[in-house]
């Protein structure tokens, strides 16, 4: 077992998620995707469902034109699930920032992100 695998095995799922999200903040989406299972399934409630790592990659290309800016208010871990609340700002093609509140519920399998259920609400003011 190499050090990376050993360290990942010792980390909590919440710590793995926050580590992976550091790559999103830097715009290094491929390194983030390395934390996902091949068949990861992301459900954005009321909007879309992404099935598989390739679908998530395409979503990131479309919506993360610049790395998103996000904050975490709270993280709760229970078993293989991690719930995170916070705020996120995404820029559209014109460079206009759109601000959202979110609650993400992540499910892990063997130290990898297997699923996401995301509740995202745009801030109107």
TrEMBL record:
It comes from Chryseobacterium hagamense. Residues 22-115 form the SnoaL-like domain. PANTHER family: BLR2505 PROTEIN. InterPro entries: NTF2-like_dom_sf, SnoaL-like. This is SnoaL-like domain-containing protein. It comes from the Bacteria.
């Amino acid at each position: 077992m190499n050090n990376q695998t050993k360290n990942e095995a010792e980390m909590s799922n919440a710590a793995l998620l926050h580590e992976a999200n550091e790559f999103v903040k830097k715009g290094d989406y491929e390194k983030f995707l390395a934390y996902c299972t091949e068949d990861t399934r992301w459900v954005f409630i009321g909007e879309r469902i992404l099935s598989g790592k390739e679908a998530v990659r395409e979503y990131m290309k479309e919506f993360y034109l610049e790395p998103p800016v996000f904050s975490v208010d709270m993280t709760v871990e229970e078993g293989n699930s991690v719930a995170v609340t916070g705020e996120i700002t995404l820029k559209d093609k014109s460079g206009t920032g759109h601000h959202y509140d979110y609650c993400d519920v992540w499910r892990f399998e063997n130290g990898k992100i297997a699923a996401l259920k995301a509740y995202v609400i745009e801030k109107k003011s």
